[in-house]
Give the backbone structure.
Amino acid sequence: MNEIKKIIDELGIAALEANTKIAGLAVVSDSGKLVFQTDNWDLTNHTNMILDVIKGDRTFVLNDGEFSVVETKTEGIIGTSHSGMGHIIFALFQGGVLVSYAMPQADPPKVLTFLKNFAMRLNGKV
């Protein structure tokens, strides 16, 4: 757990420096366990929905915001709120998914590329 927290802490610093507009992060295992989340984001009751999106759901509700999957790539999934509430980015790794909330002004494909480097560091640690 300390290693995961260290990776997420480093991600947070790098995200700020790169101006990615990432506002919240969480790590969810393939089995649906919430492994880590930033203090400003509570995904405790959303892990099954996150796994359903990974399995192919195209729309989802997260913390009262409605999102639609707008892009699916091998490295992850991008969900966007059509009411301007931002983006949910899912970066897949071996053993789970790194979930990020990106503000409306973010560039979701760039955020996914940014997150992928950190998600690879999480491989096998969950």
Remarks:
- Residues 66 and 83 are 8 Å apart (CA to CA).
